[in-house]
Amino acid sequence: MPRVPFHYIDLRTFCYETEDEKRVEAAIRSLLPEEFEIERIENTGHHGDRIIVFSARVERANEVRHVLSKLSDIQDFEGLLDELDERVTENCELFMRLDKQAAFRDETRLGDGITFRAKVEAYPAKKDAAVENAREALLQASELDAEDD
């Protein structure tokens, strides 16, 4: 099994007063390995409304591979790979937003609702190296996902 060049992946989403808490949790859970622990924090919005923040940090290699394989299901996966230079920061962090409604239906799409943030390993810690490491890891995850089908 190939090495995974990520220190961690953070996923986070908000559940607003008008949303069903169980559905929002199911949406973020669809991206995670089974039985993965999700942190739940209850907050109050500007107008006194309840907001629940669901978040998870994935650090183990097999769990990171699982999340990356979910990303390989994105319809325009090639487009995502082409955008990596814009999605990786100078601090070697990969950012994207995923569609919360699609995630609830167990689909992975770029969109709004779930924030994906990953720290990419790169030696030396340069953006170009991080972009290449992220590209390689995503391609490997898509190949593993294809083998599982």
From TrEMBL:
InterPro entries on file: PAB1135-like, Ribosomal_uL5_dom_sf
Pfam families for this protein: RNA_binding
PANTHER family: EXOSOME SUBUNIT, EXOSOME SUBUNIT, DUF54 FAMILY-RELATED
Protein name (Swiss-Prot/TrEMBL): Predicted exosome subunit
Organism: Halogeometricum borinquense (strain ATCC 700274 / DSM 11551 / JCM 10706 / KCTC 4070 / PR3)
